[in-house]
Amino acid sequence: MSWKAACPVGDVKQDKIKECTIDGVEIILVNVGDGFRAYPPVCPHMEQYLEGSGICANNVMTCDRHLWQWDMKTGEPLGPAEKPLLIYKTKEEAGQVMVFLDEELEYDFDDDD
Predict the structure, then answer these.
(1) Measuring CA to CA, how many Å separate 36 from each of 6, 20, 39, 83, 93?
(2) What's the whole-model pTM score?
(3) What is the CATH code for 3-97?
(4) Average pLDDT value for residue range 93-107
């Protein structure tokens, strides 16, 4: 696969989650101030869709279901979160947020979670 246009830069507001589908792959985008990040659309804990349940503030994303949190720039877990967010490569080009899709990123969900 390759770099694909997700949406216009202006569609991804600071502290908001923007859901997109690129070539049948669902992703979410966030604006982290100095660029954009793209992740799979669900929480790695219990498959909760983050577009409806994710709260973003100060470059921290929180899933409101069980309060797992991540650093939006790195995807690293904060607080009670035990798994990082998987991150697609992104760049800005010609006013578009571009996402590199070489494979669909998916979480391994344990039956114990």
Answers:
(1) 11, 13, 10, 21, 12
(2) 0.91
(3) 2.102.10.10
(4) 96
